[in-house]
């Protein structure tokens, strides 16, 4: 769990922004509910020096990356950075191709705790081999660094990401700040869900499917749709990397990003990703097995009008004779017990998120 600069700020990064994000992560209380990593995405780089060492852009990061990492650490948080497996990053900054060991040593010396490695400008490079090289470089550098593989799913990183030391791997292209449909090169939130949904069996403790960072609070979706976004990321056991401006969060945005009960589903120690267990047209039921032996359930309505959706216990591998306790997580309300099934009205583009306990 953390924050990354890309979704809101794109290439407009500088050290004041990153320091402020760390400050806001603490001021908002995000750190107390589990957000930890403050990650600078693309565009922090300057040119390599005469020895090939990577440097930050001196105008944007005048006091340097080590001082910035120290500052983030002083706030009790962890610090992440971005590179690319090819010759250049997606925004045209120097990539790590051929410099992996040198770069990993530099990151470790700066105090980096998290590395996202992108996949632009990689030509005919083999993805598995390229990420394996960076992983070996990180191991050789001797500092524990979370390794985020950002290959967009093309070479099926869920099949090899764990073996090459990946802690998370993107399974999709980039997420747009909209419910559905392509926007330029990016995919709507629900399209991303469809691309990631069937990969649940590859996720597990320490190695997760990454359906991209959160758009919650960036303004392109309704509050109902942002609740759906967060609920489905929690069901998919996805990394929760906020991508909004933390200095101007609405109450709605805070209520979503800081909801402890939904975060607890995402972070459930069993680490078993949820799956879609029923679908009919625009209506879906999702279920996730939790460490306490019970289920998280999401009733999802992708359609344009409110609809009733029913979860049958037989769809979540409970006997229909079972009398189960129902809790609505977004309402933070116990709804009593229900035998065999539970039905709720679900808003257009919305969810009802429950726990179902024997
Ligand atoms: C790619 C990645 C994004 C972001 C940008 C930066 O599109 O998928 O997450 O890192 O590059 O240029």
Summarize the structure.
Helices cover 26% and strands 25% of the residues. The chain is an alpha/beta fold and 358 residues long.
Mean pLDDT: 98
Largest sheet: 8 strands, parallel
The helix-and-strand class reads: alpha/beta
CATH superfamily of the largest domain: Aldolase class I
H/E element sequence = EHHEEEHEHEHEHEHEHEHHEEEEEEEE
Any low-confidence stretches, pLDDT <50, length ≥5? none
The gyration radius over C-alpha positions equals: 21 Å
In angstroms, what separates the terminal alpha carbons?
30 Å
- CATH structural fold name of the largest domain: TIM Barrel
CATH architecture of the largest domain: Alpha-Beta Barrel
CATH class of the largest domain: Alpha Beta
Describe it.
The protein is an alpha/beta fold and 358 residues long. The chain folds into two domains: 2-266, TIM Barrel, CATH 3.20.20.70; 275-357, Sandwich (Immunoglobulin-like), CATH 2.60.40. It is 26% helix and 25% strand. The protein has ten helices and 18 strands. It has helices spanning 6-9, 15-27, 64-74, 100-110, 127-141, 157-160, 189-196, 223-235, 251-257, 260-266, and strands at residues 2-4, 37-39, 45-48, 54-56, 78-84, 114-118, 146-149, 168-170, 208-210, 241-242, 275-280, 283-289, 295-301, 307-312, 323-328, 333-339, 341-346, 351-357. The strands form four sheets. The chain has an eight-stranded parallel sheet. Strands 11-12-13-18-15-16 form a six-stranded antiparallel sheet, covered by helices on one side. The protein has a two-stranded antiparallel sheet with strand order 3-4. Strand 15 (323-328) and strand 16 (333-339) form a beta hairpin. The two termini are 30 Å apart. The mean pLDDT is 98. Bound molecules: alpha-D-galactopyranose. Alpha-D-galactopyranose (GLA) is lined by residues 6, 41-42, 89-91, 118, 150, 174.
């Amino acid at each position: 769990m953390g924050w990354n600069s890309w979704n809101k700020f794109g290439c407009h990064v500088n050290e004041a922004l990153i320091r402020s994000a760390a400050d806001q992560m603490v001021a908002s209380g995000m750190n107390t509910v589990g957000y930890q990593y403050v990650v600078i995405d693309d565009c922090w780089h300057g040119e390599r020096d005469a020895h090939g060492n990577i440097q930050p852009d001196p105008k944007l990061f005048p006091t340097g990356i080590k001082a910035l990492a120290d500052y983030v650490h002083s706030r009790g948080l962890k610090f992440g950075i971005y590179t690319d497996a090819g010759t250049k990053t997606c925004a045209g900054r120097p990539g790590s191709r051929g410099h992996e060991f040198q770069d990993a040593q530099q990151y470790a010396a700066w105090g980096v705790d998290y590395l996202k490695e992108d996949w632009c400008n990689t030509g005919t490079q083999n993805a598995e081999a390229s990420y394996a090289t960076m992983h070996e470089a990180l191991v050789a550098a001797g500092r524990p660094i979370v390794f985020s593989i950002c290959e967009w799913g093309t070479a099926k990183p869920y099949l090899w990401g764990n073996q090459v030391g990946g802690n998370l791997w993107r399974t999709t292209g980039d997420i747009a700040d909209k419910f559905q449909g392509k926007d330029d090169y990016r995919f709507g939130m629900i399209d991303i869900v469809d691309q990631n949904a069937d990969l649940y069996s590859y996720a597990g403790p320490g190695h997760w499917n990454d359906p991209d960072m959160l758009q919650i609070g960036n303004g392109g979706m309704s509050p109902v749709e942002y609740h759906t976004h967060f609920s489905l990321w929690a069901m998919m056991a996805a990394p929760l990397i906020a991508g909004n401006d933390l200095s101007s969060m609405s109450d709605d945005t805070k209520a979503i990003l800081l909801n402890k009960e939904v975060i607890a589903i995402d972070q459930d120690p069993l680490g078993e990703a949820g799956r879609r267990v029923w679908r009919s047209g625009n209506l879906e039921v999702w279920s996730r097995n939790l460490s306490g032996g019970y289920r998280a359930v999401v009733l999802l309505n992708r359609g344009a009008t409110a609809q009733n959706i029913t979860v049958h216990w037989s769809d979540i591998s409970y006997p229909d004779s079972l009398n189960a306790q129902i809790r609505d997580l977004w309402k933070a309300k116990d709804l009593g017990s229900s035998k065999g099934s539970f039905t709720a009205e679900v808003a257009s583009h919305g969810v009802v998120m429950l726990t179902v306990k024997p």
